[in-house]
Amino acid sequence: METTADEVRQFILGRVADPLQAKGLASAEVPASFDLLLEGVIDSFAIVELIGALEEEYGLEFDFDELAPDDLTRIGPLSSYVAAKLNGK
To answer: Counting C-beta atoms within 10 Å of the first and last residue's C-beta, which end of the chain has fewer, N or C?
Structure first.
């Protein structure tokens, strides 16, 4: 069964739900282009934690050569990258 980018998005948003709420944002309102770092939702340490959580949850290893640095913190590209890796694309 394929994992969709939307499923990955929900996992990511679940991990950052409290900081999002603190900024007055609901998960459903977060656009794909939303940058967690630039918007102040997470800091650089939290990025490392998020990547680790994604690797553990989905049993994959990030290849940072395949993903632009800016896309590591943007909801849409990060979700799409994880789903594509899981689905062998």
So the answer is: N
